[in-house]
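haha ok so turns out i had the wrong file open the whole time. this is the CORRECT one, sorry everyone. sequence first:
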Amino acid sequence: MLDMKLEKTDESTARLNVGGDLTVVNISSLYGKICDLYKEVDELSVNIQDDTSIDLTFIQLMCASHRAFSQADKKFYVSGNKGCLFSKTDEVGYTRHKGCEFDKHCTCALVKKEV
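then structure:
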């Protein structure tokens, strides 16, 4: 089961708390919410809660979302239980040591800094 809770800091900034099963079974709901928020905010943080299960589809969604926000000169972050994220990116070979060419704000979700 997917758990999503939105916190709006102000009109242009939001934090989306996500947890539960962030896998191919539920990813379309998260994708839809991020698409809606893309139209509404200039800065979005996706906060991964503890006890979260992720797969490659979640990683791909975070990467694509970061790219879309960056290209629109908006900010996109991943926060919270990044250990969960990096455990999976290490496993599938997606962990980065620096951001891609679209990483204008140095907020690449896949760059492993400190966990």
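The first helix runs from residue 27 to 40.
again sry for the mixup
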